Amino acid sequence: xxxxxxxxxxxxxxxxxxxxxxxxxxxxxxxxxxxxxxxxxxxxxxxxxxxxxxxxxxxxxxxxxxxxxxxxxxxxxxxxxxxxxxxxxxxxxxxxxxxxxxxxxxxxxxxxxxxxxxxxxxxxxxxxxxxxxxxxxxxxxxxxxxxxxxxxxxxxxxxxxxxxxxxxxxxxxxxxxxxxxxxxxxxxxxxxxxxxxxxxxxxxxxxxxxxxx
Length: 213
Ligand SMILES: [Zn+2]
What we know:
46% of the residues lie in helices and 13% in strands.
C-alpha cells in the first residue's frame, strides 16, 4: 500500500525533480536568439521558429514520459494509492485566484495525478482521493493539531514527541484517512531517494506483478 503527498510516499520514497526545462535552457535560449535575429516572415525565420518549437516539444515530451513512467511504477507496485483531492485542496486554499483551479491539470503535479488515476483505473488499482483538510497539520502519531506554515519542513509534535519530515507526516495522514484506519503509532523508516535515471530506466510495457500490495 502506498500514498503520496507532494513528492513523498509513506514507502519513504522521495522522487528527484527532473528539471528537464533547466537542462535544455541554454539550447532554447540560443534558438530564441536565432529566431529574433531573422527577418520576421522570411524563410530562415520560419526555419528557426520550427527548430525552437521542436525544442519546446522535446521538453514537453520528456516531462510527460517521465510522469507516465513514474505513475506506471506506482500502479505496478501497489494495490491501493491514496492521494489528496487537488480540486478540494485548491478550492479551499486559493478561492481568491479564479484562474488557478483551471490550471491544476496543467501543473506537473496535477498532470501526474491525472496519469496516475488513468493508469490505476485501467490496471484495476484502487485510487482513493481524500479531503486534504489538516493532512499537514495533524500529527500522524497521536492526532493532535500542530499548526505550521509552509516554511516549516519538519513536523515536531509537542504532545507525543513524534518527529518526521513534514511530507512524510502528511503522507501518513493521507494513508490513514484513505484506508479509514484509526491512529496508530508510526514506524519511521529512512527516506529513500529515487533519481530521474531510475524512473526513466523503467522498461515500458513490463508485465504487472500479480498480487501487488
Ligand atoms: Zn503527536
